[in-house]
Amino acid sequence: MLRYIISGFIGIFISLNMNAGIIAGEIFYKWLNGYTYEVKLCLYSEIGSASLPERCQDTIDFGDGTSAVVLRSNGPIAGCSPAHDGIPITPYIKYSEYIATHTYPGAGTYYIHNSIYTKRDSSIINIPNSINQDLHLEAMLVIPSFGVTHNTSPNYNNIPILDGCLNGNCFNFNSVGNDADGDSLSYEILPCSGVSGYTYPNAGTSGTYSIQATNGLLSWCNPQFQGKYNTLINIKQWQNDSSGNYQLIGYSQRDVRFVVNTCTGIHDVSILNEMVTVSPNPFLNEIKIQFNPTNNARHQITLLDVTGRALTSFNSYDTEHSITVNLSPLNLSKGIYFLKINDEKGNVLFKKIMKQ
Q1: CATH of 269-355, one of 1.20.140.10, 2.60.40.3080, 2.60.120.200, 3.50.50.60
Q2: CA separation (Å) from 209 to 122, 124, 125, 200?
Q3: pTM of the model
């Protein structure tokens, strides 16, 4: 049985004016018209970190010799006024967007990046002295001259944060890139940009840490130490030119956070993540949420928009391993939404979904 309830604002707007270290991030660009593009920087930060000032604004360099200071654009307006305050997507993590519109002078190759003063959080195992190192993101935009006059970077169906387990376990992360232009995508792992002393996460002598270039599936088997890790996933876009040859027309980067824990049972959030799938994603009117048959638990599921507002909530019951929800009555706009999934043990999982 499915309960379908339209609800009001969710009570997750906590500690918005506290300081924050940056956990993860990603950067996008979208063609608007002519040579005009929208550039969006997305950052995920700790709530309550006392080490760094709040990120009410950031600076975006457009790669053509110009830059702009951009105010944060999501969440309520309070302590960061006139900028918005971002939204907590968990009790510990805040999501922030910085969006700018820019017109380029013409065809060419442009390297877009964020401010170099975006400090990371502390104690990242594979980044020495991480509190004093920056999270630096880059995107390459090619405005080509071989017949295609516009280009949009792919969007992704998940947030760049994932839990994993010690004790010889494997866990997977997949960006699940969706390209509006139909470009071919390839994926690679790179050292986090601009980091001194970076090392790849340690998989030990019997483990693996690798990504499949064609589908973006990153697998980490046999993590060696409990703690926080960051890696950079570079997603390349390819298009055929008039002669049928593939041309690199851009890339965008995701700085991804992995948290490795000593998992104690099926109710750990890291394992819950592996037991819940959402399809289709992007969706049009309906979503199907599937639970692993061994996960016989009740879940409360809430749909949030990017401001943190709860749009609807519903429950799954012990005997339901799959539920289908019709979201068309909500008349959702195209864009990013989050599913907040609570289990009976008090664990919370967030799934990023997109309305097409």
Answers
A1: 2.60.40.3080
A2: 23, 17, 15, 8
A3: 0.75
